[in-house]
Amino acid sequence: MTPADRPTLAHGTFTIERRYDASPGRVFRAWSDPVAFRRWFVEAPGATIQEWVHDFRVGGQGGGRYRFGGPDADLGFNDTRFLDIVEGRRIILSYVMGRELGGERRRESASLATIELASDGRGTRLVYTEQGAYFGEDGGAHIPLREEGCAEMLGNLARELEMNP
User: Fold this and answer.
1) 88 phi and psi angles, rounded to 5 deg
2) What's the mean pLDDT when you consider all of the chain?
C-alpha cells in the first residue's frame, strides 16, 4: 500500500457503563461544577494546565490547553461544545482534540459523546457513548486508546465522588 492509498480517517464507537454510589444529581454536579470537573477530568499527576474553561450550558464551550508528562511534553488541546443538557439525566457534547506543534494546531480527532444518568438503587448508572473520527494514517490505532482514556476518566470521576461527597 502506498502512502496515498493509506486511510487518513478512521471511525469508532464505544460505550462504557459505570455504577456510582452517588445520586444522579450528585454525579451530574460533578460534571456541571467547574471546580469539581477540572479536578477529576483534567488535573492529574504530572499535568500542567495552561488554560481551562468550563461554560456548562447548552451552546457553552469548554476545554483548554495542557501538557501531560512534564514541561517537554507536547501541548495538547481540547475544544468542547455542550450540545444538550438535561439536569440529572443527560449531557451531550462534541469535542476536538489534538496537539499544538510549532504554533499550529493539529487536530487528531473529533467526537460526539453522550453521558446518560439513571437511578440504580441508591446510586447511579452512567452510560458513556462516544462516536469519533480519528485523523491520520494511524487513526484506527487511537480508537482503543481513547476508550481506555475515557475509562480512566470515569475512574477519576468515581474517586471524585468518593472524596468530595
Assistant:
1) 75, 0
2) 91
Contact 23, 165 (CB under 8 A): no
Compute φ and ψ for 4, nearest 5 degrees: -70, -25
Residues 6+ positions from 50 with CB-CB distance below 8 Å: 64, 65, 66, 67, 75
Q: Starting at the edge strand that comes first in sequence, how are the strands of the sheet with 61-68 ordered? A: 9-20, 123-135, 104-120, 90-101, 75-86, 61-68, 47-54
In whole angstroms, what is the distance from residue 15 CA to residue 83 CA?
19
Q: Which helix (H) or strand (E) holds 91?
A: strand 90-101
Do the Cβ atoms of 18 and 154 come closer than 8 Å? yes
For residue range 67-114, list pLDDT tens digits in order: 877 677 788 999 999 999 999 999 999 999 999 887 788 999 999 999
C-alpha cell at 57: 450550558
